[in-house]
Amino acid sequence: MSLNSFGHLFRVTTWGESHGPALGATVDGCPPGIAVDEAMLQHWLDRRKPGQNKYTTQRREPDAVRILSGVFEGKTTGTPVQLMIENTDQRSKDYGDIAEKFRPGHADITYWQKYGIRDYRGGGRSSARETAARVAAGGLARAALAALVPGLSISGYMVAMGPHGIDRSRADAAEIERNPFWCPDAQAAADWAEYLDGLRKSGDSVGAVIEVTVRGAPAGLGAPVYGKLDTDLAAAMMSINAVKGVEIGDGMAAAALTGSENADEITMGPDGPVYNSNHAGGILGGISTGQDIVVRFAVKPTSSILTPRRTITRSGEDTTIVTKGRHDPCVGIRAVPVGEAMAACVLLDHVLLHRGQIGAAGGSIGPAR
Amino acid sequence: MSLNSFGHLFRVTTWGESHGPALGATVDGCPPGIAVDEAMLQHWLDRRKPGQNKYTTQRREPDAVRILSGVFEGKTTGTPVQLMIENTDQRSKDYGDIAEKFRPGHADITYWQKYGIRDYRGGGRSSARETAARVAAGGLARAALAALVPGLSISGYMVAMGPHGIDRSRADAAEIERNPFWCPDAQAAADWAEYLDGLRKSGDSVGAVIEVTVRGAPAGLGAPVYGKLDTDLAAAMMSINAVKGVEIGDGMAAAALTGSENADEITMGPDGPVYNSNHAGGILGGISTGQDIVVRFAVKPTSSILTPRRTITRSGEDTTIVTKGRHDPCVGIRAVPVGEAMAACVLLDHVLLHRGQIGAAGGSIGPAR
Amino acid sequence: MSLNSFGHLFRVTTWGESHGPALGATVDGCPPGIAVDEAMLQHWLDRRKPGQNKYTTQRREPDAVRILSGVFEGKTTGTPVQLMIENTDQRSKDYGDIAEKFRPGHADITYWQKYGIRDYRGGGRSSARETAARVAAGGLARAALAALVPGLSISGYMVAMGPHGIDRSRADAAEIERNPFWCPDAQAAADWAEYLDGLRKSGDSVGAVIEVTVRGAPAGLGAPVYGKLDTDLAAAMMSINAVKGVEIGDGMAAAALTGSENADEITMGPDGPVYNSNHAGGILGGISTGQDIVVRFAVKPTSSILTPRRTITRSGEDTTIVTKGRHDPCVGIRAVPVGEAMAACVLLDHVLLHRGQIGAAGGSIGPAR
Amino acid sequence: MSLNSFGHLFRVTTWGESHGPALGATVDGCPPGIAVDEAMLQHWLDRRKPGQNKYTTQRREPDAVRILSGVFEGKTTGTPVQLMIENTDQRSKDYGDIAEKFRPGHADITYWQKYGIRDYRGGGRSSARETAARVAAGGLARAALAALVPGLSISGYMVAMGPHGIDRSRADAAEIERNPFWCPDAQAAADWAEYLDGLRKSGDSVGAVIEVTVRGAPAGLGAPVYGKLDTDLAAAMMSINAVKGVEIGDGMAAAALTGSENADEITMGPDGPVYNSNHAGGILGGISTGQDIVVRFAVKPTSSILTPRRTITRSGEDTTIVTKGRHDPCVGIRAVPVGEAMAACVLLDHVLLHRGQIGAAGGSIGPAR
């Protein structure tokens, strides 16, 4: 069963462990004729790459992606695209201690209990390193979206680090690329830098909230009732390491609203329906409305920390653990490009699904023609 | 494509519209030899049934489920189980207005834009009535779980209505069945009754937060990295009508914690690992730990309200809409048994998957034997 | 897992047993806006219906199909279509003997060994009666194909009964509807009538070879390398009860040819490529060429016969069995409309897949434009 | 969509083109704890490797398989296993002519018509080279079967080359490994050598019939009605390049039998049911009986031949083609290990499915205990 796969028509299977020879993504169902090359994919991987500043793990890997199949003379052929990233900086010796002890809050213990065997080096398959393959696949999805849905854009950014949220009245998209946190609020970014520095020095870590906005998606994407656009986005984001919550539009806060508050009223504009608000996050009944699609997810703090925690060994003895090695004090930072990549894959998937199910357009709104 | 299906090995496909002849669930992959009959399923449907008190829609349907296949002499045979519920109280005349106008916050407009045709009567396929089929399937899943994992229990309850949350220090499981809101906090339930009465009279509606706890699930359930237990739970809950957010364990609040706070420390107990807290909601790396599994979701307020809202017609004219008919002022109430049912289906599915992938148990913890 | 389902985008799940309350097909993925009603489906079911002449089982059922969902005001809505056929003539008492004894050549013993429980009445799920659901789904697929691929036609016919094949030089499509065997060779049909009469009287049965030809399918359908058009056709036909072999084009005989004989040479015609022969059966590399698609399958003789055969009981005792009841002396006759239905479903599925994957057309042949 | 994948729980996705950097198989769902290394897989690849004798293509590739993931310290971990084979001897210049002309009987034209782009070098994705990935995956399946079903064996062999079949009365399993054709009849092998030599010299090619026998499979494998064991075997074999027909047991010949002839009578033996014949090929109702499972398939002659054939160019001009390069005069020879590999994958898949669906055993036959 493709339990390491996601997507309906654009189907991504990731493979590989943190400290094996390589990892990658096998992508089946990419339409033919899409212009793509390794440099285009590398652009997105470089955004996620660790070791770029003091706030992410100091593991240094080129994370160079290779296209092994499915592309001929610069274009996809409609056959599977194999994207491989070799692991080059593996330093296995750093991880000796966790072969025997389970890190609290980490998948160490559950992988052991499930499989009876685990590649403990660097977290093996449960390492955040697996997300590099997602970013590579997301780059391919972006290339296909650019060809199929011109004008669609996907932007991820951090809206809270630990207990410190951004001030949305100060948010400016142009800031996102200007700080190491992909934070749209320059003031918050400055505060976070100081906050995280303190945490890092104290050997602790912290969580974060990431938001991804998709602009320019047409109305009509999404397949009720179990392949809804929001259902697939929720699954995609929840599958990212350390994610504990997912929200669409107002998310959990929608529960506190009344029906009259929550209704995104509609008026008719020159180009179709205009919504006067976007509590729904661009999705009604699992189908896109044409508004901005807004998805948000919470990343818990890195569980590999220098602060000693009580735990047990594989042979059942009580002990404590201090996780050395190179770990991100806020793994949520690197989750930003991952969230974007997942959104890109899900959107492309639903563009293809819609085309298969519906062919051309669905119903139009306006005077009968 | 089974876009109206969920589950890997225990695969549920729901079908049917609010005002068609019938609706139901086609369940493929139920293990053979499970004792089940219509009365056992009816028990769960009766919990969800509308018209039971003044807080839910006054539509009165017996919602009687029939088993059309897959059960022989009181036991499942391993072949597909067809569960059908006939629609008897359809009063289509109530819905005349919404044939032409789109309700704000409702799937009316997106179904039209996607498909170019929609059964507008009572919301058609996007009606909350679809969830009756889920509850029937969930009843079957519960029967199978009772046979395969004795001791596992699933309990749903409401933890917030609109802005009013429960006080967890007052929570008492015994209260859940004693009020119409499945609320574990008797005081909150009393307050909600008054609050909802006011809303109902004013023609408005409100959202809610539901929590489902699974007790007694073994460690090892869940299939990383895209068939994780939390990923599947998130998708299952997000697929329910009107759900806008899903959380596992601490959920969105996990982002505000430090790594040392978030670590559920482990000590060795007489029967295996003991966790000193449960921020993780019973799932690490997508695999169950053996602790309580805790999933929470937010239901937005019903969009069919008596308060007038601005909208447009199918021919593109601005107008206002007042939705008469029989609607729930807090559709979240009826979402409680639906959330339980979805949890039951996902859990059973992962029990079967684990058995297929792993056979017997995975790794043990304790002195080498 | 949808092990009772087939199809990628047009996904058919059949459910139901021979002697349960009903059986049917849950069809997910039918495009919206397709004109269909019960009478259109009934047309195809009536062709398959037993009891029409002395060569098929005398079980008399109206086999009336009901559409329970997915169709509104005479058109599909893009939501699941539930097709139900109630079982009315069940005479369970006829089947008492086979509750304890396993019929040689029948699924009785393997269902028991697999599931440890079986609905023995009339073969339960393994009854040829399950194919009624396929024919209903095939009717829906034909309606969609008529809208999406005008000019496509599907014709099934019998080319051999037992050892007696047709003479292809005498074949005439107009004959197919004129005899109870869907035989294109009038002389063969007359011979078969006499032959089958003798077999029936002696309490024996016989096999058959069925061929299905699809005309008017465009080039480009089929998804290499494991969703090939021929792969899916082979699986579809092999899944029909009692089928033991499937051939595309020359089939098994292709093995005896040389490469120069087998090459279907190509010349350029006014409307595109013209093939001078069709050894390939209209499929190269798993993709349709635009020629006639030809698939053939062998149906073994009915295993329920009046001739005594040695067998064992469930408790392991040697015995003999004589299967009374109403059985087809040549179950292959009723397999003709079933083969057509399966071909219709597979073709529609690949039309939708192609549309989803490729969008409009693929590569053109001819002078650069 | 995983259209380049097969299998339910043991899911194999092959990727790669004949003349790209590499090809391989992404295998998801392999149980953990299976002992496997590259040498074990290489053993099976070496059997398929071209250039071993004058009867197969003279392309010389080491076809060295690398395990990139999913194996740790010599055992599978339950995570995806990536098997990669680099392409080293690509000689693209040999294939210049087929960039513009379509080979009759080859997928050249249909890939072009479908995708509008194709990697024409060596057939690209439609090359028989893709089957190397299947053989690697089949090696992994064999390793898992050895652990899970001790005593199960899989043997493929050729039973006809062109019009020349073996004499089954002379068949001897020990001969299979002694001649380049995997032929169990030494006399036939000698005749074929001479026959094929003549064909090769004349620049022609020929088809073949391959049979695969699985011994030692337990009763109860197979999932009716669309995941039947024979359905999955038929799809698996039909998906192999150049296969035009698939048979189970008596196959197409079953059509010529009467019910009394076809019934495999059953008596009770000391260890369970004993069948007095095996017309069914070990499968009844899609479920294994415990007898030998027998599947047979026809491979058409190689379409790349030196004999000139009429065809057209991409720009629509009539022409003739002579395919130079290194091609197998009887591609069926190399299909033998491929058929074995596909059988291994399908069998393992159904072993895992059965375990997931049924748990332990199904029904027993014998005196009540």
UniProtKB/TrEMBL annotation, chains A, B, C, D:
Binding residues annotated for NADP(+), in chain numbering: R48, K54
Keyword NADP: yes
CDD domains in alphabetical order: Chorismate_synthase
Molecular function as annotated in GO: chorismate synthase activity
Keywords of the record: Amino-acid biosynthesis, Aromatic amino acid biosynthesis, FAD, Flavoprotein, FMN, Lyase, NADP
Pathway: Metabolic intermediate biosynthesis; chorismate biosynthesis; chorismate from D-erythrose 4-phosphate and phosphoenolpyruvate: step 7/7
Superkingdom of source: Bacteria
Cofactor: FMNH2
Enzymatic reactions: 5-O-(1-carboxyvinyl)-3-phosphoshikimate = chorismate + phosphate
Cofactor note: Reduced FMN (FMNH(2)).
Record keyword Lyase present: yes
Binding site for FMN: R125, S126, S127, N241, A242, G285, K300, P301, T302, S303, S304, R326
PROSITE patterns noted in UniProt: CHORISMATE_SYNTHASE_1 (PS00787), CHORISMATE_SYNTHASE_3 (PS00789)
Entry EC number(s): 4.2.3.5
PANTHER family, per the entry: CHORISMATE SYNTHASE
Subunit comment: Homotetramer.
NCBIfam families in the cross-refs: aroC, PRK05382.1
The family this protein is said to belong to: Belongs to the chorismate synthase family.
Role description: This reaction introduces a second double bond into the aromatic ring system.
Record's protein name: Chorismate synthase
Taxonomic source organism: Thalassococcus arenae
